[in-house]
Fold this protein.
Amino acid sequence: MTRLKRLLTILKKTTISFTNKKYTMSNKAFEVYKGLPSWAKGVVVIGGIAIVYFTTKSFLKRIKQSAEKKKDMEVVVEQKKELDTLVKNGVYPTFSGSQYKAWADALQKQFDGCDPSIRIPLLAPTSLWNSQWSGSGAKFVNIIYKFKNDADFLQLSQAYGVRTYDQCGWGTGNFTGSLAAAISDELDESEINAINQALSKQGIKYKF
């Protein structure tokens, strides 16, 4: 018998042995299940369903997050083109690049984790100093009031890019997205409306 034939024979025996072991293990598991009382069988079935549910949910969540991240990246790229067009037409960001990065870093830090500020939901802030701003809302509107033109808004969006931060609450996980996506995630509708009003007052055409 040649070496090749001997190798093939060994591989065939190994495969058969492995298959038989799997079959034997399956039989044993089924025998154990059959021997369980009715309530224990119910627990096993429910546990199996729970595992399938959470595994599927996690998988679908990853797919959704991947699609949303791709969309946010496209938004950032598009805004870079808009910023380049403004610069070509003589509209420049008011501040240095390091300032926008510092603001973006501060916003990400603010978004991360739970917001300790106490805010009554759906009660719109009426001014910069109104206590109805959340911590994230107050941080962002304070930056907006420093803006002079659309280039400032776009430059901050570019500096923020697509970032990840920890959401508040058990089981919420992380959030990844652009600045616009993060604002939508962090602020409620009344705050976003107030933010848009603040942008309009500053002569900024962009809205959330």
Residues 124 and 137 are 11 Å apart (CA to CA).
